[in-house]
Model the fold of this input.
Amino acid sequence: MKKLNFKVLKTDIVHKGRVFDLKIDEIVYDSGNKGYRETAIHPGGAVVLPVKDDGNIIFVNQFRFPHNQFILELPAGKLDNNEDPFLCAKRELTEETGYSSENITKLGAIFTTPGFSNEILHIYLAKELKEGAHNREEGEFGMEVISLTLKEAEEKIKSGKIVDAKTICGILYYKLSLDN
Done:
């Protein structure tokens, strides 16, 4: 294992938010130079790739405030305190799409932005979907459920119509799982 070339001198939580906290670490390198590292502390989340019996994948078209636009993506949500990512995936599937499943398996996990956040997203595959009613939160009321083939999803990635990183990673994990 590589040896770190710095020590942490001081850590401050400078912002406590609803979605993430902001931590600033003052560090000193072995050379004696000082530096600062800002980290968004996030509880993580779960992403679910729902596949219908016909092979189509369920997406949601959701308004994303930071980009001021609707973004086509896989259903996902933030973990509650100490929540099992599997339970979060199951909850978000129903909450956002109305579908439920008892056949949910983990595909993998990703570090979303390791340069400044400790967020980890756990990606799950849901099969044998059962249709039902969604249970959206207030900010999700305008969300639209969209069904695409894998090929259509890949074309939307290539054309820049799917730009959401967790969705692109979820599609890749799914494709790799089909090769096994």
